[in-house]
Design goal:
CATH class: Alpha Beta
Radius of gyration: 16 Å
CATH superfamily: Ribonuclease Z/Hydroxyacylglutathione hydrolase-like
CATH architecture: 4-Layer Sandwich
Shape: globular
CATH topology: Metallo-beta-lactamase, Chain A
Number of helices: 7
Strand content: 35-45%
Number of domains: 1
Number of strands: 13
Order of helices and strands: EEEEHEHHEHHEEEEEHEEH
Length: 235
């Protein structure tokens, strides 16, 4: 069910070269949908001008995601997974087939899309049945940028929860996947490929260095800010 949205927010936009244009704004649409048995946060990030949208972590309930896209008048052009666990990728195939969108993921997590051990589908057998993702068309590395019209999101490599976990930064917000959560929560590292040391390095060097007011939209649970989470994690 929808967990919240920001229907029309004035945000800074990037030019075609990825540079922030001071004083220039674009209308961005942000919708948050909780999907699947594990209530994964799926995010729709769209440009009000071009009507293009990036869908982040379509973990299930593709019919609901498509209804939200239609309600906002948006066309999904890119599906991006913050990591390769099946609760974040289970809707990839159906959504890509329905929209023609390309699939993007961190390069080191691309093998997880069709590797049951790495994507945890055996552990989620009832939920994950017949929901294996197609291969990704775009493999992301640090600094790569995704565009939906005038809205842009930059990939940050934030390994730890998985080897190829990424966060997506732009428009004064960061989509952190399962790297960091509200109330001082951090991602699990006991799954295949997980590393506590890598996770803490990612949090400290990639996320907590962002401005205090940066909004954090995690893979599960409520949103927060970098300032709040820095205070909680440093206690």
């Amino acid at each position: 069910m929808p967990a919240g949205d920001l229907p029309f927010g004035q945000v800074a936009c990037c030019d075609q070269y990825g540079e922030l244009r001071k004083g220039v704004t674009a209308f961005m649409i942000l919708r948050t949908i909780r999907v699947g048995a594990f209530e994964t946060n799926c995010y729709i990030v769209g440009c009000e001008t071009s009507k293009e949208a990036i869908v982040i972590d379509p973990g299930d309930d593709v019919d609901l995601i498509r209804r939200q896209l239609r309600a906002a008048g948006l066309i999904c052009t890119i599906i991006v997974n913050t990591h390769g666990h099946v609760d974040h990728t289970a809707g990839n195939k159906v959504l890509a087939e329905a929209t023609g969108a390309i699939i993007a993921i961190g390069a080191k997590d691309e093998p997880s899309l069709d590797d049951p051990t790495r994507n945890l589908s055996p552990a989620f057998a009832n939920f994950a049945k017949d929901k294996i993702s197609p291969p990704a068309s775009l493999l992301l590395a640090e600094g790569d940028t995704l565009y939906a019209g005038s809205v842009c999101l930059e990939a940050l490599e934030t390994p730890g929860h998985t080897p190829g976990s990424i966060s997506l930064l732009g428009q004064g917000m960061v989509f952190s996947g399962d790297t960091i959560f509200a109330s001082g929560g951090i991602g699990r590292t006991d799954f295949p490929g997980g590393s506590y040391d890598d996770l803490m390095k990612s949090i400290e060097e990639k996320l907590l260095v962002l401005p205090d007011e940066t909004l954090v939209y995690p893979g599960h649970g409520p949103s927060t800010t970098i300032g709040r989470e820095r205070d909680r994690l440093n206690r």
